[in-house]
Amino acid sequence: MARRVPGAAGGSGVLSRVEGKAPAAICRKVAMAENGGTILIWGDGTAIRNYTYVDDLVEGIYPLMQFDLEGAVNIGGEEYVTVAELVQTVIDVSGKDIRTEYIEGPVRVQARNFSKERIKSLGREAKVPLKAEIARTYRWIEEQVRVSKVRV
After folding, report:
1. Residue 69 to residues 72, 122, 145, Cα–Cα distance (Å)
2. Strand 72-74 with 38-42, pairing
3. Please, what's the b/e burial string for 15-24 (b: 16 or more CB within 10 A of its CB; e: otherwise)?
4. CATH number of this structure's domain 2-10+17-142, picked from the four choices 3.40.50.720, 3.40.190.10, 3.30.2290.10, 3.10.129.10
5. pLDDT in tens, 23-82
6. Where exactly are the structural domains of the chain?
7. Fewer CB within 10 Å, N- or C-terminus of the chain?
8. What gap in Å lies between CA 106 and CA 103, rounded to an integer?
């Protein structure tokens, strides 16, 4: 059985500019930006993503170990968001007034939509909504930036 995991968010995210996933990278950019500042985002903001809180992903793996399923099972939530919406969610959570500038850069896939029906048939669904994921992640990253003075 193959387990397909969407983009993970939350927990103690990676602060490095090379290794971080989009939610952590955007949280880091906003945390480091001065109120009233501007952050740069690759692409035009229309790419669609699905991020699931890491605890939901871990809890989604356990039921899969209890069943002998064939084929792929997609673990993750049903909440899809454009990159622009993700950025705005981070800005809203931060409480800052931040402008965004979209620039050329790697976007990779424009969108993916994997069915979650098989994991739902096992009684499992992601529980943590995106805004709560981002709020938890942002608070942690904001503290790390404050303490360590991490720079882009």
Report:
1. 8, 10, 43
2. unpaired
3. beeeebebbb
4. 3.40.50.720
5. 889 999 999 999 999 999 999 999 988 888 888 878 878 777 777 777 777 777 778 899
6. 2-10+17-142
7. C
8. 10
